[in-house]
């Protein structure tokens, strides 16, 4: 079941990389040779939602550039502390869809399992930055109840591992869960939504492949890559390992002001993903979560951007522009307008 050489990708343990993540803004600013005046606002914003960024992700940032698109996704900034009408704690109403601990059941036919509360990186725009993960850390008995929920609802055909980041869970837990789910006859597919291979590509090990890909269930992994600079050689190897194991690879991104809101950013991201056999699936407009308002791109700009992508790329490399709306039966597509150039 395992193909290809994993030696270089696996040379540093992902657990060590995860444990060694930088959480002190002063250390990050020093490492990147950035202006120390950024420290006070970073500390203030981090008190609300902490800084967390692993070394392999920092290695892809440009030194001395406060506008680096990867840095902007992780560095706490003073704008996060401004109150903005319409930006709320739970923009997607997920705390109502939290059917029972560990389960978010929003859409027909599929549900999310909160496999791990942890993330390898704290993304400043995260719509779950205020999610009550402590209430969703499951005991063994609660895991059984979550599985019973899936067993008892034969309208479900797909289980989605989510979080936090589901790949922050260890492989033993993932292997057990995957076997249990594969034993439920009406479940036909497994999907994994993760940013972990993007920020720590070393997470993709033979043991992970074994844990996810050893049952009858076809596996789709939706990566969360927002910028072409994230696509380095280690991530390319991790992607190849997943593809060799038969995993279908998609990507979802969030449209973020100052990160990926220019046409050239989106073209480079789609082309880069395409080079590695990953199809762009969704481009999400920003969820209006409190603290993320400075990333907002308005709908007109977003529609024009994707319209221009259509004129430059094959259709399969143009992501669907969508918004998630609390209470809707699916993601809501935004109308786009094809333009020249
Ligand atoms: S990895 Fe995903 S869940 Fe975790 S902070 Fe980033 S966007 Fe949120």
Give the structure's gist in a few sentences:
With 341 residues, this protein is α/β, with parallel strands linked by helices.
Annotation keywords:
single chain; 341 residues; alpha/beta; TIM Barrel; 2 domains; nine-stranded mixed β-sheet; 13 helices; 9 strands; 32% helix; 14% strand; disordered N terminus; binds iron/sulfur cluster; iron
| Number of separate domains | 2
Distance between the termini: 45 Å
Global shape: globular
CATH top-level class of the largest domain: Alpha Beta
Low-confidence stretches: 1-10
Approximately what portion of the residues adopt beta-strand conformation? Answer: 5-15%
How would you describe this protein?
This protein is an alpha/beta fold. The chain has two domains: 14-81, no CATH class; 94-333, TIM Barrel (Alpha-Beta Barrel). Helices cover 32% and strands 14% of the residues. It is built from 13 helices and nine strands. The chain has helices at residues 14-19, 25-31, 39-46, 55-58, 69-74, 94-97, 140-152, 171-182, 196-199, 206-213, 233-244, 263-275, 299-310; strands spanning 103-107, 110-116, 158-163, 189-194, 219-223, 248-254, 279-284, 320-323, 332-333. The chain has a nine-stranded mixed beta sheet. Helix 8 (171-182) runs parallel beside helix 10. The longest helix is centred in the middle third of the chain and has 13 residues, at 140-152. The radius of gyration is 20 Å and the shape is globular. The N and C termini lie far apart (45 Å). It comes from Halopseudomonas xinjiangensis. Belongs to the radical SAM superfamily. KamA family. [4Fe-4S] cluster binds at residues 119, 123, 126. GO terms for molecular function: 4 iron, 4 sulfur cluster binding; isomerase activity; metal ion binding. Residues 105-320 form the Radical SAM core domain.
